[in-house]
Amino acid sequence: VLQEMAKAECHFTNGTEEVRYMQRYFYNRLQFLMFDSDVGHFVEFTPYGEKWAQAANSLLQWMEQRRTAVDWYCRNNYKVFTP
């Protein structure tokens, strides 16, 4: 069975002072691509992910939306994500 999965994560340190947004992509339980807000672009882990990273990083408007997800996704939903 072939499986593909995408996962978005928010990591909070000191409440909302230090927030890290990560978007991870898996294929057959192997991570091939990841966006990390601390890095600011997609990073590949396999040759398959390299093509995806090049394509995603070239989409300027979409990349800006990923970079600002720390504010509109993580900080905005802080009370939902934490107990």
From TrEMBL:
Pfam families the UniProt entry points to: MHC_II_beta
Residues annotated as domain MHC class II beta chain N-terminal: 8-82
Keywords annotated in UniProt: Disulfide bond, Glycoprotein
A GO cellular-component term linked to this record: MHC class II protein complex
Keyword Disulfide bond: yes
Signal sequence annotation: none
SUPFAM superfamilies per the UniProt record, alphabetical: MHC antigen-recognition domain
UniProt record, GO biological process: antigen processing and presentation; immune response
InterPro entries for the chain: MHC/Immunoglobulin (IPR050160), MHC_I/II-like_Ag-recog (IPR011162), MHC_II_a/b_N (IPR014745), MHC_II_b_N (IPR000353)
PANTHER family, per database record: HLA CLASS II HISTOCOMPATIBILITY ANTIGEN, DRB1 BETA CHAIN, MHC CLASS II-RELATED
Name listed for the protein in its UniProt record: MHC class II antigen beta
Organism: Pica pica (Eurasian magpie)
